[in-house]
Amino acid sequence: MSNAIEFIISASTWVVPVLFAVTLHEAAHGFAAKLFGDDTAQRLGRLSLNPIRHIDPVGTVLIPALLLITAAPFLFGYAKPVPVAFHRLHPQRLGVIGVAVAGPLTNVLLAIVSILLLVWLPSFSPEVNDWLGTMLNQSIWLNCILAVFNMLPIPPLDGGRVLTAISPLPVARVLARMEKTGMIILIGLVFLLPYVTSKLGIYLPIFQWLVIEPANALVHFLAAIFA
């Protein structure tokens, strides 16, 4: 088997879970918004399970591709956010929370489905079994990582929106203003700060602490229940 074919087969064990994870995550936000009274996503054609409608050139294609090519120890990606008119949600605070948690909850459900499939799928040829086993294991990890990452309490992540919804009005206003700068703060905290401190001889694995270790605990928790 040529190296190119081996790479494609190996990459597919990540690409398939990424497409399912980010597509269903974003679609879930749209379905939850419609449930709470906002049909913006539906009118814009984003209540769809077609991955093409949710693909973000950077988050769904470039970042996962770079992580694959550089043989990163984990894969990460995101889709184009589903538009939600939060002022149309009713009741508003509960609606914001429901829309926010719908995405990470969907990722947890996908991880559970992957665990069940890993346990109950019939046996195929060794090659197919290896491919399916690898893909389902990747799906479990990826979905748990996405669920934990998105629930970090920093706007515009889903956890940040939950925090905004449950905070007193003065605090909520400050958090709402972070929607545009929160991702910059997050990238600086999780990626740039550890890089800079590593050059100074200081080890600060913030992504490991905030995301990988809680995701690992979530994987083991789900496996203990459903495996």
From TrEMBL:
Required cofactor names: Zn(2+)
Residue ranges constituting the Peptidase M50 domain according to the UniProt record: 134-193
CDD domains reported in the protein's UniProt record: S2P-M50_like_1 (cd06158)
Keywords (A to Z) from UniProt: Cell membrane, Hydrolase, Membrane, Metal-binding, Metalloprotease, Protease, Transmembrane, Transmembrane helix, Zinc
Subcellular localization(s) per the UniProt record: Cell membrane
Primary location recorded for the protein, binned into one broad class: membrane
GO biological process: proteolysis
Entry keyword annotation includes Cell membrane: yes
Name of the protein described by the UniProt record: Site-2 protease family protein
Origin species: Thalassospira lucentensis
